[in-house]
Amino acid sequence: MIGGVFLIFILFLVSQGIFKSFSKKHRFFDRRKMNYLFFYHFFFAGVYYTYALFNNSDSKLYFWRPKLSDSSWWSYFGTSTTFIDFLSYPFIHYFNFNYEMMMVLYSWMGYLGFLFAYLFFRENIPLKIKIFKNIDFLTLILFLPNMHFWTASLGKGAPIFMGLMIFAYAIKRPANRKLILIFSSVMIYFIRPHVFLFIAAGTVLGYMTGQEKIAFWKKLLIYFGMIGSLIFVQDTILGMAGLDESENLVEGFEQFSEDRGSELAKSGSGVNMTNYPLPLKLFTFWFRPLFLDAPGALGLIVSVENLIYLLLFLKILRKDFINFLKKSPTTVKMSLTVFFLASLAMSFVMSNLGIIMRQKSMVMYFLFFVIYYFLAQKKYDKLLKIKKYKLKLTARKQSELNSA
């Protein structure tokens, strides 16, 4: 326990150095908010740790598996669960981190995800938006409790969220941020290869259809980089679903989805989504549990958050959203593609509300980004109209004074 508390103090100091660096790069950077967010996130790290002490938790398996192993470090190099063991191995064996310290380390990875989410939003959307009358949109989504709970423990949740948000931040200026772009791509691929597929598809589509004037060589670099990466890792991605030897990928995926869904539906919080129509599958993945089907006290808390998701989603269910989407920049189209593809794939294989609560924390920020940008664009257009009206009014008064 003492080691974990000491590590929090060390990581807090490291975070201050990171804040200083970003303060120089971005004038908008709010160190006070990021410090609040640090302590808020580690509060949920404490909540999750307490929960893990009295309940079954995958975090214990992620600690003890490499801890008790006689295998070498590189024997763990691989994708999915194996890669988490690979990341943990040197800290456990070479630096003698105990369980609490590993929980703190991975919680900090989750915190870095929120830090880069903040940078991703603020760099692309300079306008501040109030939601639900007087609540700052960005502050609201940065402090959603469910997001922090599932990214504050030893496991896949924290590093995959960190990788996704670093990627989202880096893709804005790939030439200047190529090191963290490569790092985040590697993290995403080795933790969840299928998510890397969604990221690559979203990036290519975004650069193909975005409204910005981007140099041809930059587009070509992105196309070849992402498509080449997919070709290189296609066997691993297909192998995750047992489709690497399938002659018919569509039928193979349908069979995999049915088997996986049936398996997950057997648990206490399972829902039989096999025969759900697609809209209901997506609704379940995005917004359930929703009070009536909440699994326990945690489910009730999550239901409040899901209601917020639903209310935010309703903000884009308007006619002008389609026109906005057609004229939207690369980051918006990339975010929407990643969110929709990931939701589509996972809604077919997820039939457990507990797992759904955990899994969707990976991609919900991409939806939030689209909603935020849409509302900011509407506010900007409104401000532009007011400015033009004032200029016309001023010009008319000046004309009347001159004529007088």
Automatic annotation (TrEMBL):
It comes from Christiangramia oceanisediminis. The keyword Metal-binding does not apply. The chain crosses the membrane at residues 6-23, 35-54, 104-121, 157-175, 181-208, 220-243, 294-314, 335-356, 362-380. The lineage of its organism: Bacteria, Pseudomonadati, Bacteroidota, Flavobacteriia, Flavobacteriales. This is Uncharacterized protein. Keywords: Membrane, Transmembrane, Transmembrane helix. It comes from the Bacteria.
